[in-house]
Amino acid sequence: MKKSAIVLALTSVFATNVMAEGLSGGVELDAKFVNGQTEYTTSNGSGIKAFVGYEGFGASAKRKANFENEYNFNYKHDFTNFWLKGEYEFVDKKSRQASNDQNKFGVTVGGNVADLFDTSLRLRKDTDLNSGNGTERSDIYRFDLAAGKQVTDRMYFRAKVVGQKENNDKTIAITDDRNKDTIYNVELRATFTDIQNMVPYVEVGNEGKFGTSTRNTYGKVGVIFPF
Asked: Can you give the pTM of this predicted structure?
């Protein structure tokens, strides 16, 4: 199904006058390019996502270009000087051979520093499930440290560092260096906030790979249609 058809179908679901007060939702489309080429590998983030939120509760479903499905459920609570968010995500990889489904549990704390910039720290554990295909199960600890600021009336800028530690080195190819079980990624994103009915963004980053010293530079473009 073409993405345009999916957008129209989801728009008819969310864009309705009977939505309860406080209920929000939308659709997000994105495309990722690694080293200048469209990425259709196991690490690909390209796809289409529908999301909905109500009074701190949120849920989303994403279909990725590599045929994985991601289902996320979360709750965010605002305190006086900070906010706290818990999340659970299930990654369905049954459409791909020799791949385990995943459970992801995370908690994020964030806030604003002296009215200068926003900041947040997320801790997450990503664990492969035993899908019965005989492959090793990945077990990753991950952190995301981000800082962002509304730099102009039309653009919000965010920088993020992501660290990941693979606890099961048997998931790293035997031909690679299994001592290289920790990687760090860098992400920079500009979100354009003053366009009616859509929120486009551009992201660039640099990613590591377990078991090697190889790093990839990527670009991502996306647009959010809020309802």
From this structure: 0.85
